[in-house]
Amino acid sequence: MSFVVGLTGGIGSGKSTVADLFAELGIVLVDADLVAREVVEPGTQGLAAIVEHFGAALLQPDGQLDRAALRQRVFNNETERQWLNALLHPLIRSSMAEQLANAKSPYVLWVVPLLIENGLCKDCDQVLVVDAAPELQRQRVLARDKSADADAIMARQLPRDERLQYADQVVDNGGNLADLKAQVQFLHRQYLSMAAQKRL
Which residues of 20-31 are buried (b: 16+ CB within 10 A; e: fewer)? Predict the structure, then answer.
């Protein structure tokens, strides 16, 4: 089994940027958001079940899932949200477990926005939290999607101080890219050393 570093952080904290910097160093990423898209690709059992439950109106002309329409359907409907989670979570977990087991880099970065909320820390050797001030998170979310309700999304996530309590390491993403790269390179050396120790 690979040495697993769980990467998490609130929305707009910059998880993807940090993950990409690790990938540039040759580290395999297992990204929950990417896997969540893969399990509802055309031809998958995930998409077939969604269409059967919600109807074909949630399909785009090319047969892809209209993720925005699905989000709207479930965001304020707890029953539908629970149904969707019950369908997708086992598919996503199974796919992620397979990718984690097959990762060939010295350690693997497991990128999960709700790593802590979903109780996945226990499956990680280390937990790395990407941290940014709430005002900065809000700015980044709105820069990406003007219509996003950043406050509502942030309210559904773990409070910042609570998230930090789970961290073995923290990346401060409030500065510039050069600073971020330096932090990632420092952590990379640490994780290589820890992973080598685990293999002994």
Answer: ebbeebebbbbb
Residue 94 marked as a ligand binder: no
Give 58-75 pLDDT, tens digit per residue. 999 999 999 989 988 998
Query: Is 12 known as a binding-site position?
Result: yes
Place of tokens 């199974």: 94
Q: Is 100 helix (H, G, I), strand (E, B) or coil?
A: helix
Start and end residues for every CATH 3.40.50.300 domain found in the chain = 1-27+105-200
8 is in an annotated binding site: no
123-170 pLDDT, tens per residue?
999 999 999 998 888 888 888 887 777 778 887 888 999 999 999 999
Q: Say if residue 16 carries a ligand binding annotation.
A: yes
- Give, in words, the CATH class of 1-27+105-200: alpha beta
Q: What's this model's pTM, rounded to 2 decimal places?
A: 0.86
Do the Cβ atoms of 111 and 30 come closer than 8 Å?
yes
